[in-house]
Amino acid sequence: MREMTKKFLEDAFAGESMAHMKYLIFADEAEQRGLKKLVNLFKAIAYAEFVHARNHYRELGKIHKEMAENVKQCLDGENFEIDEMYPVYNTTAQFQDEKGAERSTRFAWEAEKIHAGMYEKAKELAEKGEDYSADKIYICPVCGHTAEEEPPEKCPVCGAARNAYREFSV
């Protein structure tokens, strides 16, 4: 692929990805206000943005036949966030006395460490042609703390109660 086309597709992927997430965030906000049809609109268009992002990613050659390669991309991204991105973002937020930004980057940083471990395990399993081992994964809706099989009594990062965790199960 020629460089200009590649750069534009990468930018389009980033834009579509951000739109997808933004619309899902707005859907949550609308749902809290009981606006069911607006929720539906946000979710439907978020899916369209996902389709666009997936198409761009595919054309960039980023979706691999070997699942271990796809998982490795995830692991590499988590490690970048842990080792480079969030340490700098968090330090900057502290330096500039931006309490909210410090908190949100710390929350994400802590969750990414867990995610990296999970992706490392998933990569090892995928290399053997096996599926991931956890049947249930729990996510704290406040900070993103992640637990397998059972959530903790209290989130170790933000203190949210066990019953606040969202379950993702097979």
UniProtKB/TrEMBL annotation:
Ferritin-like diiron domain: from which residue to which, for each copy? 1-130
Q: Which residues form the Rubredoxin-like domain?
A: 135-168
**Mitochondrion listed as a keyword:** no
**A Pfam family annotated for this UniProt entry:** Rubrerythrin
Alphabetically list the UniProt keywords.
Electron transport, Plasmid, Transport
Q: Name one GO molecular function term.
A: iron ion binding
Instruction: Specify the domain of life of the species encoding this protein.
Output: Bacteria
Protein's UniProt keywords contain Disulfide bond: no
- Entry-linked PANTHER family: RUBRERYTHRIN
What's the name of the protein? Rubrerythrin
**Species the sequence originates in:** Thermovirga lienii (strain ATCC BAA-1197 / DSM 17291 / Cas60314)
